[in-house]
Amino acid sequence: MSTGETARTSRAETIASAIERRIADEQLPSGHRLGTKQTLCQEYDAAPATLTEAIRLLGARGTATMRPGPNGGVFVASPTALVRLGRKMLELSGDSVTVADCLTVRDQLDPLVILEATRYRNSRDVEELRELVAAMAVEDLAWGEYLRINWALHRRMVEITPNQVLRHTYLSMLEYVESRLQGVTPIAPGPEVSTRLGAQVHLELVDAIASEDIARATAAAAAHTQLTANRGATS
Fold first, then answer.
1. Could you give the CA distance from residue 181 to residue 204 in angstroms, rounded to a whole number?
2. Cα(125)–Cα(118) distance, integer angstroms
3. Which of 57, 80, 187, 215 shows its CA 20 to 30 Å from the CA of 49?
4. pLDDT tens-digit map of 168-203
5. Nearest to 229 by CA among 108, 91, 93, 145
6. Bridging pattern class, strands 73-76 and 64-67
7. 3-state secondary structure of 30
8. Which residues pair with 35 in a beta bridge?
9. Quick one: angle between helices 143-158 and 123-136, nearest 10?
10. What are phi and psi of 116, to 5 degrees?
């Protein structure tokens, strides 16, 4: 993909996350009209193609849906039982639930997510994973930007699996971590976890998924587990 398409995908992810936060923060009910594509483009300062991609992401997550016609637009979706489960998990708060708790659960799910992606990926999945990992490999990438792309990459991987329980549980962990770290300046860990090393590990991860080789994906998942074991609690 071109640089412009890469930027559009990254921007679409940001807009989708912002709309999800709005739905959660304002406790918007199912069927609530978020706006038309035109008004949402204006609200989020987005190009039509970028907003269309954001709506696709929201639809895949069961968060919002597009309705055509004169009275159409983008509406809050009626949540399935699994989406309600995810929202309940996001309602957890207080000192009893920490970012570290969520990262621990996410880390345990990562190998399964990777193997599922290897089994079920298609050419579009691989293309989008490659563009995200390429963005991670940019020279002198700031740690906060590295984390944002990292989370987007993992979100895209789990969207491949047909296992809805896995997908919603994993996404809930990611969304909880992102919500708790919103506005917090992340501190880079020690030199043993550099953005360059992280990009290399994730590049092999994506190459393994693309290869459909389960043994290679298992080895790549093990290397990724070692990487996460060396990181700080906020990475």
1. 28
2. 10
3. 80
4. 888 877 877 776 665 545 555 555 457 888 899 999
5. 108
6. antiparallel
7. coil
8. 74
9. 170
10. -65, -40
Other CB atoms within a 10 A radius of the CB of residue 158 amount to 24
CA atoms within 13 A on the CB side of 148: 18
Asked if 74 and 65 count as a contact pair (C-beta separation under 8 A), the reply is yes
> Tens digit of pLDDT for each residue in 92-102?
555 555 667 77
What is the set of domains in the chain, with CATH numbers?
A: 3-78 (1.10.10.10), 82-229 (1.20.120.530)
CA-wise closest residue to 223 among 208, 192, 201, 200: 201
Residue 130, classed as helix, strand or coil, is helix
pLDDT of residue 60: 78
Query: What is the distance between the alpha carbons of residues 19 and 35, in angstroms, rounded to a whole number?
Result: 11
Q: What is the pLDDT of residue 89?
A: 57
